[in-house]
Each structure stands twice: as structure tokens, then as C-alpha cells.
Amino acid sequence: MPYSDCFVTEEPTREEIDALTSPTVVEFGTDWCGFCQEAQPLIAEAFANCPQISHIKVLDGRGRPLGRSFGVKFWPTLVFLKCGREVARLVRPESRAEIDAALKRIG
């Protein structure tokens, strides 16, 4: 599943995320967050060159277990996974270059 501009309807479990074998980015945020809205064009552009990397966009908030298991405190937070393990993290990315660099680490 390449870049997705929609939040998943059912949040995956941490066990499901840890079991992933393909390179994946889990994005935590909300649709009303200004920082999330500003970052979306950068994220979409970066993913345009990486169709082999999966993107899971998770609606985060108080009491959401997946975000808490990753220690998410600010939105958007992008967690870059290789074989289910975190290899990079970006919080409130401000440039496409930093997203590209993190994608290269997993793709």
C-alpha cells in the first residue's frame, strides 16, 4: 500500500506493526492539526518516488494505543520501519529533503 491521504478506519495493533516485513512509514496525526496539514504536500511528494514503501496514516489522540506505544507526543510524527523495527523518526517535518533521507534508510 503506497502513500495514503486517508486515515485508516481501524487502527492496527502494535503486534501487527511489529510483524511487518515490508518497508513502512506509520504517520500519526489528525485531520484538524495545522502542522499535519502543512506537512501533507511534502509527504505526498516524497512518497511519489517510493511506491514500494507502504504508508499507514493513523488518526491519533488521547487514549489511542498505537500512538502511545510509539511515544508520540506531537503531530505529525512519521515512524520509518524496516522489518517492523523503527530506523528513523520525524516529528513535524519541515522539508521534503528530510523525508527523502528517512525514506532512503528503509527503501
Q: What descriptors fit this protein?
A:
107 residues, alpha+beta, Glutaredoxin, 4 helices, 34% helix, globular
Plain-language structure description:
The protein is α+β, with helices and mostly antiparallel strands and 107 residues long. It has one domain: Glutaredoxin, CATH 3.40.30. Helices cover 34% and strands 23% of the residues. It contains 4 helices and 4 strands, in the order αβαβαββα. The protein has a 4-stranded mixed β-sheet, with helices on one face. Helix 2 links the parallel strand 1 and strand 2. Helix 2 crosses helix 4. The mean pLDDT is 96.
How do the SSEs run, as a string of H and E?
Answer: HEHEHEEH
Range of strand content: 15-25%
CATH class annotation: Alpha Beta
How many domains? 1
Q: Helicity range of the residues? A: 25-40%
Main sheet summary: 4 strands, mixed
Summarize the structure in short.
The protein has 107 residues and is an alpha+beta fold. It has helices spanning 14-18, 34-48, 65-69, 96-106; strands at 24-29, 54-59, 77-82, 85-91. The protein has a single domain, classed as Glutaredoxin, CATH 3.40.30.10.
